[in-house]
Amino acid sequence: MASSIDTYGELKAQIAGWMNRTDLTAMMDTFVQLAESSFNRNLRVPEMVKTNDAFSVSAKRTALPTDYLEMLAGRISIGGQWRDLDIETVREQTLLRGSVSGTPCTFAIVGTNLEVSPPPDGSYTLGLDYYGTISTITTGDSGTNSVLVAHPDLYLFRSLMNAATYMRDANRLASYSAAYQGIRGDIKTAMKKSKQSTAMAVKVA
Description:
Blueprint: H1 8-19, H2 28-42, E1 49-57, E2 61-63, E3 68-78, E4 81-87, H3 90-97, E5 106-110, E6 113-117, E7 124-132, H4 146-150, H5 152-166, H6 170-204
Parallel strand pairs: 4-5
Antiparallel strand pairs: 1-7, 2-6, 3-4, 3-7, 5-6
C-alpha cells in the first residue's frame, strides 16, 4: 500500500485500505477534519508558518488575522524600512511606556487581539510572522495543502485514529496512536536538527 498521498482523494483511499472497510465514505470528511482540528491545536511545523506584511494598526488594539494560532515575530515599517518589534506582556507595556501615543515599538497578544505600545499616533503597517491554521483538504478529491504534501503519514495516522475511535476498535487505535506519536517525534527531531544547522551556518558566516 506504498503509494503517494498528495490529495484528499488519495488520503481517503489509504484510510479505507488501512481500515479494510468500504462503508466509511460518509465519515471521511469528519475523520480528516477532526485530524486538522487536532493539528491546529497541537502541531507547529514550518508548513504552518504564515507572513502578513500588510497588517495595519491605527489603534492600541487590533484584531489578529482570522487564521492566527501563535506569534513568531513582528516588525514595523518606518520610512520604508522594517524595524523589529519586541514582544512584551500588557503589564510590561503599561509600566514602561504608559498611555502616551507614539511610534509602536512593542506588542502583546491579548486574547484575539494584537496590542501595540505605545499606542499609535497614526496608521502604521506591521509585518507578522505566525503559525496559522491549516486550510482543510476536504473541499474535494483534489484538495491538498502544504502539510499533507510534507507529512502525508501524519495526516494518515491521525485520521486513522479517528476512524478507529469511530469503529470502537481499541487495538487499531492503540496501533495507530503509537505510529502517530512516532511520526510526531521524528518531525520534532528533524526540526531541531534544522534549527541547529541554521544556527551553525549563521555562526560560520
